[in-house]
């Protein structure tokens, strides 16, 4: 397979991985033994950005190419990078009925399908600690709200398109709210501050309202 | 301690930001014109990464409760220090002493946008994820400065004495150098040449996230959406309207619009000094590959 490593300015290389799984494996390899000068490793669905101000990119490029070859080899699921987090959810979200109507499911079936699969934190964006959770049951793929809410509380559990998410802090938001979790997914005093880092496997679990 | 009497149009505390958290959705942040903050710190004997004040369009008044060495860099403002009714003019890029009770007044810069005030000892404001910077995109760090806010100054014992009288001004480049890519192949073959052919005008809604430009539309060669990918400061991102945005310090760490080119690091500081209405040219740098 052709290796595409693109220049992203004087100090960064964008590695095309072609898939989220390869992005996660390359991300894990780079974090396990960080090449000198690398300041940022940012995985995306089909890329990993490697920022290395001050490093010699002509040396980094062949190293990334070799690591990418390693990352392309699938590994047994038990050896895949990432921990597993169970996210408890009170399924009483403002859009639960709307999602049921959109999908032709009952609200109980929506909850069943949301809790029925293990999701994987693909990458983070939109806000600090906001993980795009991939692997959502296709029956739950619904469009974003046409008019986003001006404020969604921290802990809101939502879906949009092929993704689910737990809002890490209060923010505007256009995703459809299924419920809320008491779990803190973003805490600037924690290390790491985000609970759901790229590669983390996530299982939602329905709980009764406290 | 420093008391903010007036912050001007927009002022924040900035150091060199919080690198290393991009994969968690945290912007790099830090001084938009980092070389200017580094210089201001060197002039007062601070480590280069000490926190200072980033002014936007000047207009600030800061009262020093205790005397302090101060240096001001970046966009050149007329500077005055008022102590007990006496006004003394001061110069840019040179350390000067502000006596206890003195008020530093920075007027509006004649050119450029962002001015940096470093204080010997650095600003000792709370640290969030390794940085004192205000992140305007997601609200990390302290809120922007407001009248009545106070800033603690860190200890200056053990710092080397200010050793430079005045630093020479660095003239702005005649054009912003860009390195092609990473997604230049998403654009029509002549789009890079088009970016560099005509000047662009800096739009009013520019901020610490990015410099929004208006000018010749950059046409795409392909339809569809780019999967979200990591972004760097200086990236020239092109939304579907074809009008480029140059990312500055508070840019989102990932984005879904293709980046046609990235500014050289030497030109990133110049981009951070562009003010609404300025005209700016790009020039392709072919030495990086």
From TrEMBL, chain B:
Q: Note the InterPro entries from the entry.
A: CT_A_B, Cyclophilin-like_dom_sf, PxpC
What is the originating organism of this protein? Answer: Streptosporangium carneum
SUPFAM superfamilies per record: Cyclophilin-like
Q: What name does this protein carry?
A: Allophanate hydrolase
Write the record's keywords in alphabetical order, separated by commas.
Answer: ATP-binding, Hydrolase, Nucleotide-binding
Give residue ranges for domain Carboxyltransferase. Answer: 23-287
Which GO molecular function terms does the record list? Answer: ATP binding; hydrolase activity
